[in-house]
Amino acid sequence: MLTIAVSKGRIYEDALPLLAEAGIIPVDDPKTCRKLILSTTRKDVQLVIIRATDVPTFVEYGAADLGIAGKDVLIEHGAESLYEPLDLNIACCRLMTAAHKDAPELKGRIRVATKYVKIAQSYFASKGIQAEIIKLYGSMELAPLVGLADCIVDLVDTGNTLKANDLEPRELIMNISSRLVVNKAAMKMKHEAISILLTQFEKTLANR
Ligand code: AMP
């Protein structure tokens, strides 16, 4: 049995066609079903539906053999303990700084609200900006509006969420896409099954 960890939402929706090409179609829909383990049309493959930030942890400890996670989450987790054989080129977006549209250029000592504490720390350090990082778990956009932070570090896709909150994107930290990650022990123990799957994904991606 191969277990693949995926998070609900954008990544799951974008991963579905890719999985389907490999014959993996979930039997239940996580939007309407509360099951956390989904059987698929392939008897030897199941999906576990978890939070995006938990995907590297499940794969690292071997609770899932494979996982699909954003590069943002992998860097923040510190993913040296995982293989990352494929860029799936899905759920693409940008990790950016953003501030109020009327706020001046960020310099001096600033406060930054984000869930990406490590990435933000190293980004501002590399720019020589003294940044106090405030960890938040969601609704980052609110922080500059209520005086909690001078700017945020968050994922931006269309930019509509920033715009709706009078914020604007400032600097690009990195482009993000979702990657396939593999547990190191599983890569050895289930080598054949995993390499067949990798080849199938590679073929689909090459034809896109
Ligand atoms: P948008 O309004 O299209 O710029 O999307 C921004 C919101 O969606 C923010 O709350 C982001 O954290 C979230 N978001 C954007 N792209 C992604 C992605 N690829 N994966 C997960 N969340 C995302």
Q: Top keywords for this entry?
A:
208 residues; alpha/beta; D-Maltodextrin-Binding Protein, domain 2; 2 domains; 6-stranded mixed sheet; 5-stranded mixed sheet; 8 helices; binds adenosine monophosphate
* Arithmetic mean pLDDT: 97
Q: Give me the CATH fold name of the largest domain.
A: D-Maltodextrin-Binding Protein, domain 2
**Helical stretch tally:** 8
The level-1 CATH class of the largest domain:
Alpha Beta
The SSE string, one letter per element, is EHEEHEHEEEHEHEHEEHH
**Total domains:** 2
Structural class: alpha/beta
Radius of gyration computed on alpha carbons: 19 Å
First-last Cα distance: 28 Å
Short description:
By secondary structure, the chain is of the alpha/beta class. The protein has helices at residues 10-21, 55-60, 71-77, 117-126, 142-145, 160-164, 184-189, 191-206, and strands at 2-7, 37-39, 45-50, 66-70, 82-87, 93-100, 109-114, 130-135, 151-156, 167-176, 178-183. The longest helix is centred in the last third of the chain and has 16 residues, at 191-206.
Structure description:
By secondary structure, the protein is α/β, with parallel strands linked by helices. The chain folds into 2 domains: 2-91 and 177-206, Periplasmic binding protein-like II (D-Maltodextrin-Binding Protein, domain 2), CATH 3.40.190.10; 93-175, Periplasmic binding protein-like II (D-Maltodextrin-Binding Protein, domain 2, 3-Layer(aba) Sandwich), CATH 3.40.190. Helices cover 32% and strands 33% of the residues. It contains 8 helices and 11 strands. The strands form 2 sheets. Strands 2-3-1-4-11-5 form a 6-stranded mixed β-sheet. It has a 5-stranded mixed β-sheet with strand order 8-7-9-6-10. Adenosine monophosphate binds at residues 10, 70, 91, 93, 154-161.
